[in-house]
Amino acid sequence: MAMQKNKNKIKTTLSRKIFLAALFLFFALVCLMCLVPFLHVLALSFSHKVPSLQHAVTLLPLDFNEELQVSQIGVDLSSYLFLLERDEFKSAFLISVVRVVLALASSLAVITLAAYPLSKSKEVFKGRTVYAWFIMATMFISGGLVPLYVTIQRLGMMNTIWSLVIPGCAQPFLIVLLLNFFRGIPKALEEAAFLDGAGQFRTFLSVYLPLSLPSLATITLFIVVNNWNAWFDGMIYMSSPKNYPLQTYLQTMITSSSQQMMTRARAELLRNISDRTVKSAQIFIAALPMLVLYPFLQRFFMSGMILGSVKE
Amino acid sequence: MNKSKRKTPGVGGLRQQLPLHLMILPAVIITAVFAYIPLAGLTMAFQNYVPAKGFWGSEFVGFDNFIRLFNTRGSGRIIFNTFYISFLKMVAGQLVPILLALLLNEISTAPLKRTVQTILYLPYFISWVILGGILKDFLSLDGLMNQILGAVGIGPVAFLGSNAVFPYTLVVTDLWQNAGFNTIIFLAAITNVNPDLYEAARVDGAGRLRCCIHVTLPAMVPIIVLSVTLALGNLFQAGFDQVYNLYNVSVMESGDIIDTFIYRIGIKSQQYSLGTAIGLFKSVISLVFVAGSYTLAYKFSDYRIF
User: Fold this and answer.
1) Which has fewest Cβ within 10 Å: A72, A224, B2, B171?
2) CB distance from B99 to chain A under 8 Å?
3) Does residue B7 lie in a domain region?
4) CA-CA-CA-CA torsion for A91, A95, A97, A98, nearest 10 degrees?
């Protein structure tokens, strides 16, 4: 039998090699297609105004030699220097950071506190079924965009950072994810805590939370990614652009014409930058936190999906 | 009752129950305010809502808003676009990741496999504001994509400016964002296949291709069924973030979807009642799809969310 297997192997070697070569080529192309738009933006952001306006930049940044009047491979930092001078960009970045921190703190508090009672059986926590339906039903039915907008308006939350932070801080999906994890924690630990005289709150703090760090990490990443990337709420709830978080600022900047921006530009910088390179630099800075984080995110997002799907 | 209380600490009794109720309170309040009050606000769809008069004082108009909407020129087109774009995205969004997962599975060098995966799902975590900003430059008439196509004698193609092309631009760029991540989910299902099955198939004389068709694919069926049925629930979600960040006046006819319409009518032009009515129309239809898909998912693969 071993002989037969060996024969088989030899017979398929050539076609296998061709297949593998084609496969590598295919994936190289697919990966390239995935990356090229990002590399292009990166190259543009480090390029000089002239080659960028000539559409000469592809995947490598081009600098411009004023004396020879030619473009050559090189790095031009003027777009980034220009952004460093711009208060709007810096304040939008700061608002986004504050938003992520506030959303993380409030969401983690609300979600962990809600997941604990919901992880109890209905014999232990009377009313569990009612609470569970009350919260979970909102995954399927919602008032939609306009009623939520009117609600936030009437609550007087417009133009406050709370309009971005509070409405999304009791996400049913994340509560479900955590409560499923809580259910996997051995009952014996909890009973031991109760026997030692700990109450529910104490048990939650010193037994459940320390044991749930992996799933808390997953939830943290969900919240950070969602809040960093959110732009629409900032656009509708903030009437003044000075309150925009980074993604909203970026959105209006990309859509709007660049005239306004150019007139405000400092004279010596104006000489070296173009709308295209500045946009690219802003896009790249806004994407940077996710680009740095994302290789670590996959594991957590996958494990989050697995944790959330564990059923008793 | 009293007995069991003593037996199992933590059961019954106000001292143990009260903290549980208190702990869930913040989530209940937030859900009530930001989910149930807006739900009640759906009554605006049947009113001529005037902010100064409030929910209670505004005039009740029955189905007038809905009638007005369906009589608006282009509303049929918008509903069609929503279905068409979300349907194409669903089909492509399932087929391409399955295919990529099967092919990726043939690569036996682990580091290479991981590198490819990591590159493929990069756009998944980036917002549509950024992806849209990148694509608007990349896919413009004098953008890099058309320069590349021009080099091989094609184009230029108005990816973002032609009604004939725009829906497909949406589908492909949606794949760009999501296919990599879904590939990983399918790939995880493949890795769980019992290696003995392959061994048995090889002993029976099956080649790579036949192993793939007769061992890998059948093993993937449960996750494929689950994934497709859950995707059915998104059949009315054409993707607001993506469309809003890519569309423009010239592709309104092929690219305008219900969600962008709601935003323009309900928020931008402040016609709250009309916007609510369209939103309600969309919610009802999506709810039917979601309920249907969950029923199917539960039937086929015993899937439950909680």
Assistant:
1) B2
2) no
3) no
4) 130
Q: Is residue B210 part of a domain?
A: yes
CB contact at 8 A, B283 and A141? yes
At residue A148, φ and ψ (nearest 5 deg) are -65, -40
* CA dist B6 → A195, B13, B95, B171, B250 (Å): 11, 10, 58, 61, 73
* CB spacing of B129 vs A286 below 8 angstroms: yes
Task: Tell me how many degrees the CA angle A159-B127-B264 measures, rounded to the nearest 5.
Answer: 55
Structure tokens, A2: 């071993």
Domain with B217 in it: what CATH number?
1.10.3720.10
Which residues, in sequence order, are bridge partners of residue A64?
Answer: A71
H helix or E strand, kind and range, residue B194: none
Query: Which domain, by its residues, includes B132?
Result: 64-301
CA distance B306 to chain A (A): 7
The tens digit of pLDDT for each residue in A175-229 reads 998 998 899 888 899 889 999 888 899 999 999 999 998 889 889 988 999 999 9
Beta-carbon contacts below 8 Å between A and B:
269
CB-based contact, B295 to chain A, within 8 Å: no
**Per-residue pLDDT for A271 more than 80?**
no
Q: Is B297 on the interface with A (CB under 8 A)?
A: no
**What pTM was computed for the model?**
0.87
Chain A contact present for B147, CB below 8 A: yes
In whole angstroms, what is the distance from residue B89 CA to residue B124 CA? Answer: 15
Please name which of A110, A67, A49, A89 lies closest in space to residue A253, comparing C-alpha atoms. Answer: A89
Do residues A35 and B119 make contact, with C-beta atoms less than 8 angstroms apart? yes
Tens-digit pLDDT profile for residues B275-299: 999 999 999 998 898 888 888 878 7
| Residue B289 structure tokens | 């799809």
Residue B161 in 3-state DSSP? Answer: coil
Inter-chain CB proximity B9 and A41 less than 8 Å: no
Burial of A239 (0-12, 13-18, 19+ CB in 10 A): exposed
Tell me whether residues A140 and B263 touch, CB distance under 8 A. no
Q: Find the mean pLDDT for residues B94-113.
A: 90
Is pLDDT above 70 for B242? yes
Write the residue in B20, B122, B266 that is nearest to A120 by C-beta.
B20
**Are B220 and B131 contacting, i.e. CB atoms less than 8 angstroms apart?**
no
Number of domains in chain B: 1
- Strand ranges inside chain A, DSSP E: 62-65, 70-73
Q: What is the CATH number of domain A81-302?
A: 1.10.3720.10
Residues from chain A that touch B121, judged by Cβ atoms under 8 A, are 294, 298
Alpha helices in A208-245 (DSSP H): 209-211, 213-229, 232-237
Residue ranges per domain, chain A? 35-76, 81-302
Alpha-carbon distance of A67 to A57, in angstroms, equals 20
**Across the interface, which of B36, B107, B240 has its CB nearest the CB of A23?**
B107
Q: Do A148 and B38 touch (CB under 8 A)?
A: yes
Q: Is B152 on the interface with A (CB under 8 A)?
A: no
Q: Are B34 and A166 in contact (CB under 8 A)?
A: yes
Question: Is A199 an 8 Å CB contact of chain B?
Answer: yes
